[in-house]
Amino acid sequence: MVIDTMVMQKIRKHGFVGDMWPHIQIMKLSGFWMFEYYEENGGAIHLMRMLYAAITTILMVMQFGFILLFLIFDTYNGDQIASATISFLFFAHSITKYFYFAFRSKAFYRVLGSWNHINSHPLFVESNARHRTRTMQRVRRLLLIIGIGTLMSVMAWTFSTFIGPSTRQIPDPDDGNRTISMEVPRLMLGTHLFWDASTGANYVFTFTYQLYFLMFALTHANLMDVVFCCFVIFACEQLKHLKEILRPLMELSAALDVPVDNPERLFRRDNSNADLPLLGADENKLNNRYNNNEFNNPFQALQLRPGGVGPNGLTKKQEMLVRSAIKYWVERHKHVVKHVANTGDAYGSALLLHMLTSTVTLTLLAYQATKIDRVDTFSITVIGYLFYSLAQVFVFCIHGNELIEESASVMEAAYSCHWYDGSEEAKTFVQIVCQQCQKSLTVSGAKFFTVSLDLFASVLGAVVTYFMVLIQLK
User: What is the value of pTM for the model shown?
Assistant: First the structure.
């Protein structure tokens, strides 16, 4: 499916995604096949970007291939096979997500394009802006936490390489029933190399190459996780925005049928009422925003005038403003629903692969943990792998669960409003809201599971089951 060209032009023109979402900048710097978020997207610069992405792809695939060859040719017993398999599956996350984004980039662009849907109703501009700001704050906080975790993981992985003995058990060539210790170079990853990396410049080159692979592999995997969480955070904050404006919207809609003594009170901030924190669209603000060309539809250019002309005390323009506010709520909720559906379409298969790989990895790690009998490099490595893998699964599930809870609470917020005191139009609006929100918004892994804390519990349960089977087979 081809992405809407007008959406992409709007993204490039306003620069919202490229300039304001920091993880997009890091994705471009780390070699993702992402070429749509540049002001100039042609000529020699574009070729250089493609060359950089191609070189990154080749280097990542080569090192991953060396890890696979090590698993096939250089492991001789069960412990070595388990350790090499864990490393292979661990970095499989990075490779699969990296190529998944390259082949499914159009679907991701479609979801990113929905972030630029910045049009708001003049009565609710403040609320919408506040929640978009909160979205940015949460995204930056999440990126900072995961970025610090990534750097600490790379540093710990590098420093642990120089702790403990640098020997490995291999079969004795003279007696196949015995093993001998062989000195191996201190490298972060067990790889099958086609050159001698034990000393000299070859060792320095290999060590630098593995450090590069380690940094970029963790960055690729974690950035894709951050992208998914950002999609969900955006949807959650938009749902909070819609819940926040429900009660003032009911009061506004009730004014369509009930006479109002002071209609201007409905359209201005009431500092004495904490339940109305968002209606700050007075005449001066609306006119200033209109003069600055900040509105894109006729309803946003309405000017509020004191004094009513109808039995409800509202002018015709004020009535139109109220009715447009109801339409705004319904349309914005549909936009959030579509955004979540596009998120599941863009990321669903990657989620399925991630959970399957993580389940196997966690099972092998639990089996390796039973062999820990002292504090050494092996125990630190196993615990580090285990914590990191669990954190990767948990970060998906906690945000997916938030989306479910926020979407379910929208119908409760609509029903708890004093809709029975409102106009017939308000009652119809509440019925539409309840009908749209009967089913909670969820993101699924290719329709095999729903991303939530229940999924996290299921993964842990599957790990325990498979672990018990491995113990019995031992």
Answer: 0.80
